[in-house]
Amino acid sequence: MVRTARRRSGGPGVTWPSVSEIAWGLASDKRAIVLAVVLITMTVLSAGPLHPIDIFINEAPRPYWDQVREPLILWPDTVASRFVALPVLATTAIQLAYWHRSWRPIILSVGGVVGMMSMVAMMKLILQRGHPRTGDPSFFAEGGVSFPSGHGANAILIYGLVLFLIVRYRAARPHIIRRLGYCIVGIAVLQAFVSAFLHFHWFTDLLTGMVAGGFALSLVIRLDRMIPGGRTATWWPWYDPDGDDPGSGSGDAAGVQGGSEARTSGGAG
Q: Which parts of the sequence are annotated with region: Disordered (predicted)?
């Protein structure tokens, strides 16, 4: 729900939904509810029923271990790390914010990453799962912070945000977007394989981390739909109140409903 208001300039404007409206909007998102149930289910199964699978994968032979270990650590394992993924997201968000004179891409990116990192960190500290090198996948091990995988969550949330922003603002053609989607799936699969191969994570750590990332991404997408169109236009440092108001048109509303504003309209979040 978005309440209408009047801007200082006299034109029609909008105000932010209340905290309770935002909370209810996030809590009632069907996709987020499904992923929350999957996240809880994976956590329960990882606590015991899936231990045989974790142990089997952890103890499986690692061919060419000495030859491939260091190259895997230096390249594939870093693809979903925050040191690589965050600059990609930051570059995308800042570029789109500049093109559309809107703080919306930056707000969504910062909110999504901070929320996801907070959720994953809290789960790690509460559940305290031991490292795969200990051979014991039990929870509540002293000093354990293995569950869920932050890299798995990064692969879905951060790169998923990059793709979402590109789709929302129509910054690439459909065939490019499809290829980017395939790349994200490839990154997630590669990260899971490498982390399990190197004994960095239990297999269920990685699966649950991806679900956690998907859950956070669904909340960000829902939040985007609740941010009023045109609201952040006046926050832009180079905003000209006497010129064309990039947020006063229907570009942002169309972006919420159908995907994004066109770059030429300068629609602002």
A: 242-269
